[in-house]
Amino acid sequence: xxxxxxxxxxxxxxVSLIACGSISELKNLKSxxxxxxxxTIVKTDIKxxxxxxxxxxxxxxxxxxxxxxxxxxxxxxxxxxxxxxxxDKGIKLTSKWKxxxxxxxxxxxxxxxxxxxxxxxxxxxxxxxxxFTRRLLETSENFEKALPGNLAALYFNxxxxxxxxxxxxxxxxxxxxxxxxxxHIISNLKAVSVKAASSxxxxxxxxxIADVEGAKSGLENCP
Length: 223
Hints:
This protein has helices at residues 2-34, 38-42, 55-71, 76-93, 106-122, 126-146, 151-171, 176-191, 193-197, 202-217; strands spanning 98-99, 102-103. By secondary structure, it is an all-alpha fold. It has a two-stranded antiparallel ribbon with strand order 1-2. Strand 1 and strand 2 form a beta hairpin. The longest helix has 33 residues, at 2-34. The radius of gyration is 22 Å and the shape is elongated.
């Protein structure tokens, strides 16, 4: 019994050391992030376990750093891939986005993950591009479930749906299901167009509506 007790104590001590390590690493990464040292953060290997304290924040910080570098045009494929991996992990590991004064910005995190997927979609071709589009569709659906009515979630969701419809629009312009799907996207976008017009997504919504309506004009017998 005594030996078992000692082993249990050692295991508990080891777990506490791991947790302290994660928290110490979090402080370091936060400091580097505040200084804008994104390259340093990207080079950091996140080894924490899902159960470790602060593991979610470590992934969110690295994902954000990767996203920022990607948007700066620095090795975009590499950094958007990195952003996708770590922002996705961070989201899945986060159960509480607000803790007292701490706000992990759930909306911005989902938005950055969605934008990273859209960027990778645009930087890809063929089946690879389609895979990123399908991931964007899934992510935007989760985004909308987490934050109903969020304009970014609605934009990315309908953008992904339209992208997946481009093939059928060209190959089956007389298909009634294609017509219905296109009309559904237009309806979704116009339902929030007034709200979107006064947001940072105004141009995105305007352009997407124009693109979808343009595609509809090429369909056969699509009222």
